[in-house]
Amino acid sequence: MNKVGMNMFVWTMSMDEDLAGTFAFLKGSGFDFVEIPINTPGTIEKWTRIGQQINEVGLAVQACTLCGPEHSLISPDASVRQAGIDHLKQVVDCCAVVGAKILMGPFYAGFKVFTGKPATAEEWNWSVTSMREVAEYAQTKDVVLAAEYLNRFETYLLTCADDLVRYVEAVDHPNCRAAFDTFHANMEEKSIGDALRICAPYLVHVQLSENDRSTPGKGHINFDDVFSALKDVDYEGPIAIEAFGPNPPELAAATHIFRPMFDSAEQLAVDGLKFIKSEQAKGRKSELLQL
């Protein structure tokens, strides 16, 4: 059975709040891990405290991050690219402190930074070269980078499964692998299941996110197809719920969430986990019927 986790974005973007009660709630609800944002490295003391809180309730942890324009690995300014490399190494350090073995996200370019043109070969090479350096560093910290492609309105370097696989193969490092988000795939792929199959050789993380960023199973994404594909490729890695709501306000503004998508973050987590368990149960029942 895949470990199932909850992304913390419906509660926080900074992890500056005291979330001990939320961690305990998620553990009591049946989750295996939490996925925490590390966008501003901050102090080692902060991440040590967070790691201890998560560990005390018996949850595992992994992390996510992105790079703003000041840290873009495809900037024409070499100093900005170097700042991005240095920033990601600091984030990796925080992952090691908090106990996260996977760092996922669209950190190969500046988030929502566009030129109005397709990515150039030069931009591609800048990102690949920079990512290889970060992956080499991540290997020393026992952290795997899981690059996530986004939709065309949020990036222009990697926007589909084919792009992602080509990128991972170009970086050519065991600590640079692939993450998959059903929200972006729903927008960019002809078939989400086929896109998962394309990513399968490098896939280490899956985010389940509904078409409207609400509770998985409450929208129109074909999750039967998603779970069928995961079964076909024998995916045994972690699965996390990712959703966005009206809080925190800075994240709501960035993700254009202007109306409530669910009653509460806690209810979303409970309902989302129940849905995932039901999909996993379908797979087990199918296996038994084939025996």
Distance between the termini: 19 Å
Number of domains: 1
Task: Indicate the CATH architecture.
Answer: Alpha-Beta Barrel
CATH homologous superfamily title = Divalent-metal-dependent TIM barrel enzymes
CATH topology, by name, is TIM Barrel
List the uncertain runs.
none
Number of helices: 10
Largest sheet: 8 strands, parallel, barrel
Strand tally is: 8
Q: Could you walk me through the main structural features you see in this protein, from its secondary elements to its overall organization?
A:
With 291 residues, the chain is of the alpha/beta class. It has one domain: TIM Barrel (Alpha-Beta Barrel), CATH 3.20.20. The chain is 46% helix and 13% strand. It has helices spanning 20-29, 44-56, 78-98, 121-140, 161-171, 182-188, 192-199, 223-232, 249-255, 265-290, and strands spanning 4-7, 33-37, 60-64, 102-105, 144-148, 176-181, 203-208, 239-241. α2 (44-56) packs parallel to α3 (78-98), α5 packs parallel to α7 (192-199) and α7 (192-199) packs parallel to α8. The longest helix has 26 residues, at 265-290. It is globular and about 55 Å long. The mean pLDDT is 96.
